[in-house]
Amino acid sequence: MNKLAIISAFLGAVKNRYMQYHPERELVEKFELASRVQGIEGLELCYPADFADISLLKKLLSDYGFGVSSVNVRSRRQGRWLRGSFSSSSAIERKEVVEDFHKAMDLAVEVGSSRISTCPLNDGHDYVFEMNYLDAYKYASESFNAICDYNTAINVCIEYKWNDPRTRCLFANAGETLSFCQSSGLQNLGVTMDFGHSLLGGERPAQALCLLHQANKLFYVHLNDNDRNWDWDMLPGAFHVNEFIEFFYYLKKIGYTNDWYAFDVVSKEIDPVEHFTSVVTLTRKLEEMSARINEKEIDALMDKRNPNKSLEYLFSTVYR
């Protein structure tokens, strides 16, 4: 069974463009909150925010017995790299980004993680004829090559997303991100699949999952839900119960069963301990429902391509 982690940032200040729901919290407070959520075994740490005092961080990890599912390297920074990071037209900025990622990789080793993940949200464009796409992909390729070559024992995961803050991100869906990773030829460059981002990109998450697995580029999984209109970071199963059941079915089928799920979920007005307790409960319940499916039986039904029979089976077996 996969272990469960919370992205540390979601235990701190929770805000949007209009409102702030929770105050910023010190690292000690975030660990204390996470420790009160039954079923949570670790955190996805955020760099640079969580690494201001590496000695304290390592002590907290030891004291609470938490693992590190990944180090989330923020490639967008306040007041820096405003026109993108990996794909910036500024060679100076790209050098800064690469060097910063090297530091993050060293720190990941220190806290016992062999994975860093990044969501290149600011690498993209708002208007036509704003970005030179050829240069953008060339620069991004050079940047990721320099990052990945630094330590090939660390997996570097690109978390794709359709938009926000750009109207169109450079790595917007599974296919685009996979194509980029394959063209790089780097063994340790792969994909973080965020369930909600997959929905936002118009994908069927289980299908995108299988595409990434086929190419050996599924490196990590984030869980959340939304209504496909925006990346709301909601409770798993809030809108897409059937899609989650199918997703978990295929995760088991491909063997992603001894790794981590990280929760990219926002609690908004709700107490974060209560909210993430529900997140854990719903995730395990969805896994349990998915496990009721008999692989032989459902595969035989899918071979016939008769959705009537498949859905009847689903409702009689999963929703009993």
How does the SSE layout of this entry go?
Elements: E1 3-7, E2 14-15, E3 20-22, H1 27-35, E4 42-47, H2 54-64, E5 67-73, H3 91-110, E6 115-118, E7 124-125, H4 133-150, E8 155-159, E9 168-169, H5 174-184, E10 189-194, H6 195-200, H7 205-214, E11 218-223, H8 241-254, E12 260-263, H9 272-291, H10 295-304, H11 307-317
Parallel strand pairs: 1-4, 1-12, 4-5, 5-6, 6-8, 8-10, 10-11, 11-12
Antiparallel strand pairs: 2-3, 7-9
Short description:
The chain is an alpha/beta fold. It has helices at residues 27-35, 54-64, 91-110, 133-150, 174-184, 195-200, 205-214, 241-254, 272-291, 295-304, 307-317; strands spanning 3-7, 14-15, 20-22, 42-47, 67-73, 115-118, 124-125, 155-159, 168-169, 189-194, 218-223, 260-263.
If you had to describe this structure to a student in words, what would you say it looks like?
This protein has 320 residues and is of the alpha/beta class. It has a single domain (3-317), classed as Divalent-metal-dependent TIM barrel enzymes (TIM Barrel). The chain has helices spanning 27-35, 54-64, 91-110, 133-150, 174-184, 195-200, 205-214, 241-254, 272-291, 295-304, 307-317; strands spanning 3-7, 14-15, 20-22, 42-47, 67-73, 115-118, 124-125, 155-159, 168-169, 189-194, 218-223, 260-263. It starts with a strand and ends with a helix.
